[in-house]
Recover the amino acids of this structure.
């Protein structure tokens, strides 16, 4: 919409303004009195612009919102087409699509209505003014104060000026539509993050190669609009330690990852790397400390090579292939149509869940950052692949501070320390053997999983 307004409307406006000014000058030469009448009539033409333009802008924004909702629904239903078909929900999705189309059309009808009303009112007022001026001019001719030729010339210039005003009115309608559409963009452009960052050129922006110690000190936090999740949480992680987080869903394990990467800031307390508060680090520097593999791996609509290279843009092809081998991804990549140059499709649709996971692990291996965050990184793998990838992850975690979220305790039995969490609190911590003896909650998890 903005492209249309800027590309077409700007040239139309410039042409119309030049035509209007030229016609006004020639009108003034032909008859100063009639030109004075035209100038008086101009404010009346501006009234519809003042009254109706805000309505055009309002419904233009609503129309854009409805079109965005429609596009979002299409993207979601097509991407999850197998689920839609599996539950025979095609008719339901068609009905949802139709209702959203109708909603978008209704909003567009309101916008078109007010835009047409705006243009129509301006043109009617312009023609009324021309007719009135023609009547005044006819009386001037009858009284002998001007000739028929002068009146004809004046009316010709007046029609040119009126046509220019009509064109400008159409442009104003388009501009109001563009302003309404651009409000969505301005909302994004003017959005400010609650997480503030130091300058990227700060002296503390160097990323060390050695793994730091991490500490959560008297930290309290709750998501906006919810009850506090953590209250005065304290947790110290040694440099190079392999720490596992265990607990039921909603215990706060993933939230610790979000706070470490400063997607949110604690309400009170602080998080430190080697006694340096992370709020004192530029965001870019902070996040360059961390490599992460999530439970639902993210694969972009690009090649295998670019997906693995995502965390280390300057890595060579050989380094990418070596990382894939360490993640046990090389074998399946080698069988793809174009090997490492195969396009994986939107959200990696051409790969299985386990293959996506190994791509994400290869990305983390290649990034080679001092802190590793692993959110059940082997959850989508079969038993054989899990064993191989676990070996690769064990090698990768050497010399790094690693935090592993584990739902399957078999993957964390050999962690340096296991932290059991429940409802945002640390219930207990220790090795697997120690917790089996001392912690009832951990023992229940273990009996359910390891002894079943």
């Amino acid at each position: 919409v903005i492209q249309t307004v800027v590309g077409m409307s700007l040239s139309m406006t410039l042409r119309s303004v030049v035509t209007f000014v030229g016609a006004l000058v020639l009108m003034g030469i032909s008859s100063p009195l009639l030109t004075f009448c035209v100038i008086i009539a101009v404010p009346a033409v501006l009234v519809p612009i003042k009254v109706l333009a805000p309505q055009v802008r309002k419904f233009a924004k609503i129309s854009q919102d409805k079109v965005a909702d429609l596009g979002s629904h299409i993207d979601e239903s097509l991407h999850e087409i197998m689920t839609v078909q599996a539950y025979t929900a095609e008719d339901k999705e068609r009905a949802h699509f139709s209702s959203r189309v109708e909603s978008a059309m209704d909003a567009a009808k309101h916008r078109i209505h007010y835009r047409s009303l705006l243009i129509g009112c301006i043109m009617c007022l312009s023609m009324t003014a021309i007719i009135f001026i023609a009547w005044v001019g006819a009386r001037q001719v009858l009284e002998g104060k001007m000739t028929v030729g002068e009146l004809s010339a004046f009316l010709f210039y007046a029609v040119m000026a009126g046509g220019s005003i009509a064109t400008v009115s159409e442009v104003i309608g388009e501009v109001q539509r563009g302003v309404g559409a651009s409000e969505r963009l301005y909302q994004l452009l003017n959005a400010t993050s609650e997480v503030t960052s130091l300058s990227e050129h700060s002296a503390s922006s160097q990323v060390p190669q050695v793994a730091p110690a991490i500490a959560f000190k008297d930290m309290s936090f709750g998501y906006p609009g919810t009850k506090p999740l953590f209250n005065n949480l304290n947790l110290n992680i040694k440099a190079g330690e392999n720490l596992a987080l265990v607990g039921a869903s909603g215990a706060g394990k993933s939230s610790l990852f979000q706070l470490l990467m400063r997607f949110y800031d604690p309400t009170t307390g602080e998080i430190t790397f080697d006694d340096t508060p992370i709020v004192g680090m530029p965001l870019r520097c902070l996040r360059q400390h961390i490599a992460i593999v999530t439970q639902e791996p993210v694969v972009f609509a690009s090649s295998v090579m670019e997906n693995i290279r995502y965390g280390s843009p300057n890595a060579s092809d050989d380094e990418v292939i070596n990382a894939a081998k360490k993640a046990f991804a090389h074998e399946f990549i080698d069988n793809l149509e174009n090997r490492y140059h195969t396009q994986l499709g939107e959200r990696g649709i051409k790969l299985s869940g386990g293959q996506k996971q190994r791509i994400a692990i290869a990305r983390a291996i290649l990034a080679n950052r001092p802190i590793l965050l692993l959110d059940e990184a082997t959850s989508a793998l079969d038993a054989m692949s899990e064993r191989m990838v676990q070996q690769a992850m064990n090698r990768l975690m050497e010399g790094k501070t690693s935090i592993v979220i584990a739902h399957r305790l078999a993957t964390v039995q050999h962690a340096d320390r296991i932290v059991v969490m429940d409802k945002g609190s640390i219930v207990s911590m220790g090795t697997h053997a120690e917790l089996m003896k001392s912690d009832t909650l951990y023992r229940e998890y273990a009996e359910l999983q390891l002894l079943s």
Remarks:
- The radius of gyration is 34 Å.
- The chain has 14 helices and ten strands.
- The longest strand covers residues 214-221.
